[in-house]
Amino acid sequence: MPSRCRFVYAVCQALVTFVASQWSAPQAALAQDVRPGPQVRRELFGAVTDSATKQPLSGVAVSIAGTAVSARTDDAGRYRVAGFFAGSVLLVVRQVGFAPANLRLTLTTPVVETNIALVRRVVELETMRVEDDAVARFLATQQATATMDAREVREKRGQTIGETLKELPGVAVIQYGPSIAKPVVRGLSSQRIATVNGGVPQEGQQWGGEHAPEIDAFAANEIEVIRGPGTLLYGPGALGGVVRVKPRPLPTSGVLDGEVSTNAFLNNRQGAASIMLEGAELRLPLLGKLGWRAQVSARKAGDAKAPLYYLPNTGFRELNYSGVVGMTRSWGQSDITFSHFGTNLGLYVGAHVGNLDDLERAMQNAYTTDSFSYGLGTPKQIVTHDLLAWHTHLLLPNAARVEVSYGFQYNNRREYDSRGFAAGTGRPAFALELFTHSLDVQYHHAQTSRLSGVFGFSGLRQGNLSPGRSFLIPQYRIYSGGVFGLETLELSRLTLTAGARFDYRYQHAFQYGAPVVISPDDERRYSGGSGTVGATWHLSNSWSLAGTGALAWRPPNVNERFSQGVHHGTAQFEIGDSSLTPEQSLNVDATLRHQGARTRLELSGYVNRINDYIFLGPREPVVTVRGTYPAYNYASANALLRGTEVTLQYAPSSWLQLYANGNLVRGIDRATRTPLYDMPADRVTTSARFFAASSRRITAPFLEVGGTLVRQQDHLPLATIYRLPTAGYALLNIELGAAALRLGHLTLQPNLSVRNVLDARYRDYLSRYRLFVDDTGRDVVLRITAPFGRSPKPS
Amino acid sequence: MRSSWLTLRRYSSVAAILSIAVAGACDNPSEPIAGAGDPENISRVTIRLAPTSGAAQTSFRVDPDGTTLPLPVGAAQGTLALVKGMTYAGTITLLNDLDPRNVIDITEEVREEANFHRFFYTLTCGGVTVPEAGLDLDTQSPTKYPVGINFQLVVAAGAATSGSCTLNVELRHFETNKGSGLGSVFETDLNISFPVTVN
User: Fold this and answer.
1) Is residue A144 part of a domain?
2) Backbone angles phi, psi at A559, to 5 degrees
3) ipTM of this complex > 0.90?
């Protein structure tokens, strides 16, 4: 090749390296020095030992950075990686409990022996960022997964945790104004989506349409959404998917670090702030050196503004605080967390209607106001959620480990009615107290060169009290438990997984309401098995195809069997069916992934067949002395949900990143071929992010212009009063931000975003206020985070 | 300064942890909570019309399981037989008598919350009216507006003879600012009809 071509080629390589380094995996796509000339198949082998004991280490992950070439050391500590061509590589050696080793090697012969001695060190399990493997991990993931790292969470942090993740592929939200947002994953929500907060499954009456996850948006450091059944690891409450909220890891270094974060939302004149302090030098007698973190956050919002009017009584207040203290040692880590979440939120007054006449009147003349107010009156909810958790990770030889999580949660939900005879008495119309103890144990067994796996069990004890003036669900006691096992086999181009789980649930609903018995005494036992098989085919270094098949089940909840009465938050008469049987689902999905130098593509499709799918469907109205009420029955049908998500990221140059994501969900009742309720409309999100050059003052400043396009939702269920097709809409969004902005001694992470720049009027199909009022209009959001402290921070 | 602040933090955390641990021991769902779940609903609506002379007419309707449960309201027991040219003093009574040992007078609660309620009486019978001047008043200031627990029902001398017309009673509950009670933002607490004859 002539020298000028070689020069151009080298420049292109450098550019590719730079672009790839701007991606989430900074070291992932290190340029391989591909020399022109005959391709030589190379091989690296050797032994990995413990530098202190000189003993061989088995199960150590050895890989070539930027490729899918990897291996594990065998029982004698020996490894062999082959099938790559580059003469100059970065050999990455990773083992839990040891400092990572990266060796830059220039291979002068096709077969080279390299021995590595690893240094033992104290490890931070949660932050073990295997950055060089990020590409390999992306390609190897079997289930369709979307992650938001710390930077993305900071940029997109919403008014609630649900709003923060609403633009992820496959995710939509059911909203009651800005204060309540419930995640919907592939068309499924509520008790079919397990929300796991720092390893503890969130238990907070999640069956309710207006019961959103009670997690502080500021406490989330990273968020991961797994689309498709997560039943194997998380039990029957994860039939539709899993939302994993990961808090910051326990600090292991630094005396005092922290972060002050503020979010301001102009639309409802909201101010929110969080102060976090952490350190690793807390010394207590007998316990030694401990890491700790304390955080407080608060939020105050007033009425939300739609383009033409204000929505009265849609403000909210939040006060949350949390603390964690723990120890990190050579044997692993153990920490205790306490967190409190408290919110006081208003429900739009005009949606809180009584009988059918009230409803029709409210739909025709929605109650709105012309002026803003912070005032918070009835109807409103006061919800608190307290969590006490104890996590322990024990490191065992050969990369085995045990993880134990115990959690106690107390959820207190009080709903105050604006009307009805309880109003003004100060007593909640509706109140529920939920006490949950949960224990999850996972044993990751010693890894051989090909096989890794986990066995575990989980248990739960839950009690529900219903002290409000109105009845909706009975008091109950639940005991449930599950055992599972999951194995992963790594062959040269194929990774196979298989797992099985057995769950048992005992449910005792207590008699409620004498002399007219509303709900009888009822004891029920449910049990069932679930299983999953999966395969990932590494088509090449940058393409992979993964598929999973899963059988899952879910027993009916107490609310689905025994609801009886008006659900105040949704103003509908809900009637349970105690004869409901468990849902059975068969889910098959496939994901094609590509990670190239400039492009990332993820294409996912799924078919989920759920028998005895339980849903709330309309029935003939209930006639009471108050008139006629819209009424709903819990019923079951055989359902079929299908859909696809496509996500494409393309960086044609170092200063431009393009993004596009499209989602489609079709859910039908197989018998009648009619659509199911609450299926999200088709949505496309697209953006172009332009980077300017960094300077001494500002790092990676960008301007992003994007759009959210939602198609009309014309797949509507059987004709009911709610059968109003929702028109499609388009929103224009603009965002300005930077990775860091230095002002004097302060380093800030600023972000200014304008959503719905054109103040377009629209009503989302999943907005519970859509029968009455428009969704919120333009919002200008300023987010500033200021980390501080003396120790260098991980990014 | 910093250490005492940290100590304070630790104490409040410890206190919170202890209170949770105590709360955790206190869930006993098998025990019903006293006073909880009394369905705040009306199981019996009675209209009583007392003429200036003669016997009173009453009609009542019963919802056998109360407002919050699906069984429908029963048919009216007793017909209101009106005489032309007569004026009646009317009273409405709302009761929760699902538990005969503990009858709750809901009319009393409406009276206490008169500034948030108003009854509306409409008749399909020609020539029969419930004039606004005959309704009892709430305690709003500066102007009092009608509530209508007690009302006057006037049958004109020339009213049409009818074997089957209806009296519809509606109770509107205003969250704030009842004002005259003619506003459009309310929840309907009662919407029920009674059969009437005019002779």
Assistant:
1) no
2) -65, -35
3) no
